[in-house]
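Review the following:
>
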Amino acid sequence: MTPDLSDVTRAKHGRPVHHWRRDLVELAALFTAVAVADAVANLIGHNPGGPALLAISAVVLVATAGFHIWWARRHGHAPPTGDTGARPAAAGRPAGRDGRTVPSSSAPGAASGATVLWRMRTTVQDAPGSLAALCTAMAAHEVDILSLQTHPLTEGTVDEFLLRAPAGLAAAELTRAVARAGGTGTWIERADAHDLVDAPTRVLGLATRTALDAAELPLALRQLLGRCTIRSLPARSPGSGRAVEAAPVEGALEDTVMRLRAPEGGVITVERPYLPFTPTEFARARALVELDARLGPRIPRAQDVLTLPEGNAITVRRADAADHEAAKAMHERCSPRTLSMRYHGPVSDADRYLNHLLSPRFGRTLTVQTASGRIVGLGHLLWDGDETEVALLVEDEWQRRGIGGELLGRLVAMAAEAGCASVYAVTQASNTGMVAAMRALDLPLDYQIEEGTLVITARLEAASAAPPAHGQPRGRAGEPAARD
């Protein structure tokens, strides 16, 4: 029997459906039960075997009720024979571009549920529906879009995605799907949890770091722009005195290279050969450099006072251009051999490098002062493109007291904190003090020797055990006496 339209409508809204035929049957059953009960009562009352018949009827009734309960419990949860039209949520996934529904069990990584993070950048036409086509293509592969940035161009738009994809989905397969959806010049690389921070928050954090410490500018640019090579050139080349070609005040952008005017008149060059810079990235980098220029030279003023084994107190702190004269005076007290081991050239040229070395634009410098304020040691952490160099100079009378090891440990801790993968030191093979200090770091070391020049590279995978830049010393210079 086919139900009428009103019955179906009531059932869809959750209201029970009543039929007048069912009410008539129930009323007839009630009258029949009354008649049967009256006949049984007359039979029991007028028959000598009435009590026995009543007892037998009770036993039959209990047995019938027990059988009904057993049957209901066994078959009460049997599946319905008809198709209700419902489907389990996990029975399938959205249809792909060909319209066919792909079972979720066949999706890459569906069995284990493992996912990976990707950073992807692609160029699309600046037209309605272009972004929707990309999203549809990625959804067909069960790729989740966590964040999106757009970089407008004169022709088209660069879309930068942070994606969570099934672990079994290869990067090549994902880029092919994006290409079929209209993406061109697609670039993709693995991301990590640090990329989950949204772009405005990341830029504000980098601006804060730059505002607190001028030496943070190259690191902030590197984190802002991804893997790139950053070089800072002074207004004049150290040693030669020749002027460096200045960048325009507003900067210059040429495909994979941007040149920015440094605050002190030099040039900051940022190069990324594998991916062109966008005008949006150029504007962000220029804003960071302008912030640095407006704030002027600045370094953190924290300092540690340490006690040497023989009882002398020394102070370790950050140095800047204001320490130029004191550092030059230390040069005059150093022997020619000590200066030649540090600067690898004519001793007369040593003073010419101080402006560059003491500038926070090119790295970080630590100085060691005596109680009288005289500088007796310098340690440099220099940003050399995408590599990091460490260099030490300790006055002759203060050598072999643990000062060099103290400076080196703090510089390596700074490099690890800045996210550097390794640091290297250039020295002479005969400089046993520098070799011993590098070995005391207890880090994996690589050695390269060329014509008497020794390059020692320390990999910082295990540098998490090193002390923080302004934390407790490594102990080679003695116990800390105080900290300002």
